[in-house]
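Backbone geometry tokens:
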Amino acid sequence: MLQQIKKSHLARMTQKGFTLIELLIVIVILGVLSGIVVFAVGGITDRGEASACKAEVKTIAVAEEAHYAKTVPGTYATLTQLVDDGLLRPGTPEYVASANATTGALTMVTGAPCTAG
């Protein structure tokens, strides 16, 4: 009987592998790390939207100034006029709703992540 217990104990000691507790600890650590990554990526996306908004505003402002310099006497244009004059690519801007042809002021869409000016 004692020899059987020693054989059983020796067999367990020579087996290689992970215990259930070790596997559970690894799973918990991986879960925590994946949660951290998800929140970090969310912040990167927000900054990307703000940068895209600022770039769009700057592009339209430069097109407005180019139109002002091109016309005599200098006048500003609407978004449609800027596209027709070849100063902007066709397509609806994502963050700028309209441009005032009198003052050149830009109106932003509701909830835009940046401001005009």
In short: The first helix runs from residue 2 to 14. The mean pLDDT is 88.
